[in-house]
Amino acid sequence: MSSKKAAATRLNILQKAFELVYKNGYRTTSVDEIIATTQVTKGAFFYHFKNKDEMGLAMISEVMQPGMHKALIEALPNKGNPLEEIYGMMESLLLKDPFFIIKYGCPAINMVEEMASQNEDFNKALSKLVTQWAEAITATLEKGKETRKINKDINTKETAIYIVSGYGGIRNMGKIYGRDCYISYLAQFKNYLNTLK
Amino acid sequence: MSSKKAAATRLNILQKAFELVYKNGYRTTSVDEIIATTQVTKGAFFYHFKNKDEMGLAMISEVMQPGMHKALIEALPNKGNPLEEIYGMMESLLLKDPFFIIKYGCPAINMVEEMASQNEDFNKALSKLVTQWAEAITATLEKGKETRKINKDINTKETAIYIVSGYGGIRNMGKIYGRDCYISYLAQFKNYLNTLK
DNA sequence: ATAAAAACATACTAATTAGTATGTTTTTGA
DNA sequence: TCAAAAACATACTAATTAGTATGTTTTTAT
């Protein structure tokens, strides 16, 4: 069993690592950098994680996964109009969330981009993350079918992936074009959602 | 003036670097690795490029830019139906181009993802690259307006960015879900294109 | 043909990397 | 309270990094 303080140290490492990785990328964020900003020593780091990748995987499951889960529950309560909920989720992610910095994109998408092709374990962990999101959207779309707000012929799974994929794409464009392209995207996205009616 | 052999050496470095960067990322591809696979010595490398970033920028403008230009001219001749041309371009990029390896995504998109936020010079060079593609699509859409194949009310610039962004997004998803999600995406993409009529 | 410049080769350096060896301190359960 | 385990600290290592210093060879223009 681990002490409260030890758990705090571990979480501190994971959270600071998450911020650094968000801004600089996973592979170019060094363990030395992480321990420097956390004020934790190397001994503590490698006591909690047997190597850097184990920390990275813990970061995904213990910081990113819960963070996304929380955002999903808030954005998609499946109460009102499903298309409005989905649009609202997108708008909130792109324009309202104070954590995101446009030029750095989305931490999860960045991580997929960088690590999915490089490491099977990361691929799995990230796949889980993305799938969780896609499934939440699928559920919202299915609910929409029941309430007749969404066309019965729509392939909800395919549509959900298309939406997540679109999000990833515009996050990437934002790195080049900035906030303006988010606005344009949202306009186009609204049009797209209307084709699902 | 540079000799033919010297120009070949330089291009050889750029092309091999491009392949390595495609598979491993820019920052995690070392100069040592590049010169090892090119059979070029360090002296030659740093004779042609004063540092790694200068090589990276040359790679973008001298390998990636021309490569994309060639693909664009072939895919969008602006002769037949603009929507069919755009769909064909997407399909060919995702499913037919023998250079692309699904798990590694798209070299240009990867580069944007990794470098646009890290280095102003890279951001500019990549922005140019992406803008060039978007402009080609815009032109095709505009042509489509003239021939009445595309709705006059469509914002062609916004639509072009939306398409490029969608491409980037699905390239990222492909790293997780593989070829299947390309197929799904193309189906959805076709639907989307039809809304532009 | 030859001097000058261009092109390339070899051997180095200082900084950074992930990870380890070996400690000391702190917490925990009996 | 006290031994054992957990948690952390310090000092190291071997490999890798971008880049340089100093050469030699090749090409070019006259």
UniProtKB/TrEMBL annotation, chains A, B:
Keywords: DNA-binding, Transcription, Transcription regulation. InterPro entries: DNA-bd_HTH_TetR-type_CS, Homeodomain-like_sf, HTH_TetR, Tet_transcr_reg_TetR-rel_C_sf, TetR_C. GO terms for molecular function: DNA binding. Coiled coil: none annotated. Pfam families: TetR_C_13, TetR_N. Residues 7-67 form the HTH tetR-type domain. Residues 30-49 bind DNA. This is Transcriptional regulator, TetR family. It comes from Flavobacterium beibuense.
